[in-house]
Amino acid sequence: MKKLLMLAEPQNTETPPSETNLKTLVVYYSYTNNCERIIDDLKTQITCDVLEIEPKEKGLRYEANNYAIGTEQLNKINANPNDLSSYPKIDPVSMNLSQYDCILIAVPLWWSQMATPMQSFLFQYGKQMTGKHIGMIVSSASSGISGVISRAKELIPEGKFLSPDLWIRSSQVSNCHALTAQWLQDINYANLQPTANNATGINQVNTKRN
Questions:
Q1: Residue 28 forms beta bridges with which residues?
Q2: Could you read off the pLDDT of 174-203 as tens digits, one per residue?
Q3: CA nearest 81: which of 167, 170, 150?
Q4: Could you tell me where the beta strands, DSSP code E, fall in the chain?
Q5: Which of 88, 185, 186, 191 is deepest in the core (most CB within 10 A)?
Q6: Is the distance from CB of 153 to CB of 119 less than 8 angstroms?
Q7: How many other C-beta atoms can be found within 10 angstroms of the C-beta atom of residue 34?
Q8: Are residues 207 and 50 in contact, defined by beta-carbon separation less than 8 angstroms?
Q9: pLDDT (tens digit, 9 = 90+) per residue, 127-178?
Q10: At what angle do helices 116-125 and 64-79 cross, to 10 degrees?
């Protein structure tokens, strides 16, 4: 179902929302709903547009048969990372990245690597993020996130990556509010400056909601 995704306004929380003139897009992929829950909390703290990335083929169990499907997709990308056909297809999106100053990306870690649907999105759109503030949020059970961050920097070669990255373990998701609030302070989100050539207007996003 195609729809216009309206601006998410921060709701009342115990932590004051981060006020800024930035135009922010939050892009996320969520397989076990951990990233979705993190973004649902983040939306209470900042004003942003939100885009969910979804694989074209539904219902895949990437961890089944000793992680056969997920491993196959990752290996295919790693073998030919510059070939679009190496990446699994995702639902189409229609968006104008030029109007955003800041893009926050939330993605799960799969076996020390970035989940493949988000790799597909960034392979197609990463170069359009040149000069944008880029913030990374990664969910994992326990493994470190360095592989995900390095891959994001390959796919967004001219992005202005914010530091630090936010790593939220699966066990922390239910109480992630304090972590996301602290992260916004750590990256100095409220004081980030708008990027050059930032267009105005409403963002048209083609996506689906579960």
A1: 52, 106
A2: 999 999 999 999 999 999 999 865 543 333
A3: 150
A4: 24-28, 49-52, 102-110, 113-114, 133-140, 160-161, 166-169
A5: 88
A6: no
A7: 21
A8: no
A9: 999 999 999 999 998 788 999 999 999 999 999 999 999 999 999 999 999 9
A10: 20
